[in-house]
Amino acid sequence: MVLDNDAINKAARDRNVAIFFAAALRKQARLITSSVVLTEILRGSDRDTKLNHVLSSTRTVVEPVTEDLARAAGKLIGDAGFDSTEVVDALVAATAHMYADRAEAAGQQPDVLILTADATHLPGLAGDRKGVRVQNVKDIRSS
Description:
Elements: E1 2-3, H1 5-13, H2 15-26, E2 31-34, H3 35-41, H4 48-55, E3 60-63, H5 67-80, H6 87-105, E4 112-116, H7 122-126, E5 132-136
Helix pairs in contact: 1-2, 1-4, 5-6
């Protein structure tokens, strides 16, 4: 699962989302985010405690923004017809594409879920990439 800032914030505040993440981790899912998302959510204060807890799983991966990832995100912005205000979302989408590409290269069927509260921009940025889907974190309910 690739997480944007809204998904991480919601997991820190919403029991249903926290339960959803815990269940995913039990199924060996990875929680993946872009390093730039940390800039959006962390403030170096007590408010970070719950956010850091969400990020503390051994199955959480914070992907650095490499030149290749930045170029891929820029292309997604251009392809979607958005402007540079969507940089962070584009990096989240590019990270999801990278994981889908890795799965295909390993001979696996890609299945990458992007969790977001931004149902307007991320679907456009994710495009129609096979194996990448976007879900609104607000739709998560406990089961």
